[in-house]
User: What shape does this take?
Amino acid sequence: MTSHIRLALAASAGACALALGTTAPALAGDSGKAMVSVFHGIPGMTVDVYANGDQLISDFKPGTVTDPQSLAAGTYDIQIFKAGQSPDGTPALEKKVEVPEGGNATVAAHLSAGGDPRLTAFTNDVSRVDAGKSRLTVRHVAAAPAVDVRAGGQPLFNDLTNPKEATTEVDAGTVNTDVVLAGTDTVAIGPADLNLKEGTGNVVYAWGSAEDKNLALATQTFSGLKSAS
Assistant: This one.
């Protein structure tokens, strides 16, 4: 049965809500749980991450994405400190995150198109893919204008803006990709070879800052998605 999940993010001064829907089934045999990953896409900032006062991640470096973790559904007070800073001090960033039952999501700390720190929640599509295929998702979380994503020199996604994503299924194998400024041949990131294995979901994060000339790619892979047919 299709499940619907919601991830609400409430800042300490003001609030914003993000609604997430997914076609993936709830976690079988794991009632009250959800799979959650965290991506760190803010350049030049190594951090420690705390949840409800307990350290969740230490020395979290930019460009890193955690493995999915099974978390109990509920509300978590997420605090981000500069690495090594005492958690008794004032956090660099603090959000309340409601983790709903079922589904799979990644919370990305990144820059907006204008260069401001943001927190965006994405649903990870972990539904089955056809035999011989791989799912490719690109998420624009960089301080940069709209971009086109090319595979083998041919447009794959057009006019992708921060913090949007685009998804398609492609033939499994090695794909040469690059990211160019929308409507041009001006390369912003890449080229890079992606090894897209059969029966996997692959998420590529375009992150960093165009102004600071540190744009980069980070990847996240979900395996075991091959269709039985």
